[in-house]
Structure to design on (66 residues):
């Protein structure tokens, strides 16, 4: 569970893009801009130590809290 490249779809425009996933830093929560539409993509990375897997969750990041 170190480095890997994943293909994701932008939740805004649907464009496929490759991202590098670094599993050496533990759980992560960050934003990256889409290379096509420039909207923010919310990425959450979870290391599942029991299954030796990296779980990647992607959403639009535009959920608003009132």
């Amino acid at each position: 569970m170190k480095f890997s490249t994943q293909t994701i779809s932008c939740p805004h425009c649907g464009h496929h893009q490759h991202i590098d996933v670094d599993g050496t830093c533990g759980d992560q929560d960050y934003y990256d801009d889409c290379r096509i539409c420039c909207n923010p993509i919310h990425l959450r990375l979870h290391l599942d130590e029991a299954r030796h897997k990296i779980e990647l969750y992607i959403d639009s990041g535009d959920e608003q809290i009132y």
